[in-house]
Amino acid sequence: MVVTHFLNIFFMLLLFRSGIEVLSAFPKLYWRDDCPPGREWLRLTKKTFSADSRKPWSSLEEEESWSPVVALPGHKNLGLGRHWHFMTIQFWIVTGAVYISLVFATGYWHYLVPTHWSIVPNSIKAIGTYLHFQIPAKIPGQPFEPAQKLAYFMVIFLLAPFQIATGAAMSPSLLARFPRSGKLFGGKQGARTLHFLGMCAFGAFIVVHVFLVIVHGLPKEFAAIVLGNPNGNRRLALGLGLSGLFAILLFHVIITWFSLRYRRRTQRLLGFMVDPFERVLSRVFTSRQHFSRSDISAYHRVNGYPPAGEEYERMARNGFRDYRLSVGGLVANPMTLSLDQLRALGERRQITKHNCIQGWTAVAEWAGIPLERLMAEVRPARAARYIVFYAMDDKGLTEGEGRYGYFYGTIPLHLAANPQCILALDMNGAPLPVEHGAPLRLRVETQLGFKMVKWITGIELVADIADIGLGMGGWREDQQYYANGAGI
Ligand SMILES: Nc1nc2c(c(=O)[nH]1)N[C@H]1C(S)=C(S)[C@@H](COP(=O)(O)O)O[C@H]1N2
Ligand SMILES: [Mo]
């Protein structure tokens, strides 16, 4: 239990810092999933944007660069922050499971799990005693006083599972598969808000906990914490304890530096732990979203500026009459299709919720061709494993920040069979507006928004993603170190 307590400090600090990094990508909290700009209940940024801002903006501009002192790794590295968060959560849950098994196997649970309601009034009395600057008496025969026992119980058996549940309730794959249960915490934004408040509760607990350990008498408590024995050698305990804390601090400094200095390597290394987990989610769950018209968001954020350049503008002015989609690569029947030919392939309509990796959501109605239908026309070869979608926006021209190249994205071929995987031509009953991807964009409803390439110009079937772009599976994966699997 001494070891699990130490590991818990170690992992919790990783979760806090990486969680703060994730928050910095969209430092606003909402209760409702339409999250209109300006209607957040908490805003941790000075920048304001509104639905009727005169200058068009893209949600990436809502990102904040927070210091590596609080965020892991800091400086607008959402992709890597998520990698750290999702890697750590797996170890944290295992540590928690080991701890709880030990607690029950050793009978220690008697000290942690209240068995009588009298714990509540007794805890209130104990808190009153603290407020009189005195230390309340322990429960007879037990190591803790009542308020302490109740607090530990709530943190271990209520707050920790609550954080896991609200965390899971933000996964687009889970939300797409179980849209109804997704409402349990008030949708994605409710879960995001509650997850944040849970973090604050953890933070408050830790502050009070550490303070009281000091008040109770540091050397004795240190012996109990480090050696598992309040009467153990105090010097040894203090030495070991402080070196442990120092080791944690040092580790954080090193990984923060490493993550900022070697971003690609961090993405790959942590990817070993995180990618399989994300891929399984995407494989197992199919989208079953059927929202109603009244759920459609009045304002749908935009991420990514439309293609800059005369060619695109000319096509748009023409109502995309000259647009052609080419589909090729590892297929038996390569094709070039006009919009009319595309429309003739059939239509599917769906009202679904968009989940941007940054954290915002919006509901819209999308209509277009089932991707499955197009695949049936071109007939992928046996060797084909991924579908690549090439876009018309050159990000070097529109976004800057040192990033460059045309946007593109890939999905594993099996996702095309997903019933709500479509090439959308219409949004909310009208042809796609320019900012949302005219004339053609992808919708894969179990995935995060960055997978849904807008302004598609070509589709290619390939055996491997390693030779496309910088090889990480998409423009945002290449340039922003996002994970290629996008189920969480
Ligand atoms: N071509 C292209 N497609 C793109 C992007 C982009 O920048 N360029 N951004 C992606 C991201 S991160 C998101 S969240 C969605 C946003 O879709 P929307 O602008 O229609 O809301 O588009 C995705 N598709
Ligand atoms: Mo996004």
Automatic annotation (TrEMBL):
List the subcellular locations: Cell membrane
Which parts of the chain span the membrane according to its record? 6-26, 91-111, 150-175, 196-216, 236-260
Q: Where mainly located?
A: membrane
- Coiled coil (UniProt feature): none
| Domain (Cytochrome b561 bacterial/Ni-hydrogenase) ranges | 2-220
Keyword Membrane on entry:
yes
- Origin superkingdom: Bacteria
User: InterPro entries, alphabetically?
Assistant: Cyt_b561_bac/Ni-Hgenase (IPR011577), Di-haem_cyt_TM (IPR016174), OxRdtase_Mopterin-bd_dom (IPR000572), OxRdtase_Mopterin-bd_sf (IPR036374)
Q: How does it sit in the membrane?
A: Multi-pass membrane protein
Q: Which residues form the Oxidoreductase molybdopterin-binding domain?
A: 321-463
The question of whether Transmembrane helix is a record keyword is answered with: yes
Question: What keywords would UniProt list here?
Answer: Cell membrane, Membrane, Transmembrane, Transmembrane helix
> Know the name of this protein?
Molybdopterin-dependent oxidoreductase
The lineage, from the top, is:
Bacteria, Bacillati, Actinomycetota, Actinomycetes, Jatrophihabitantales
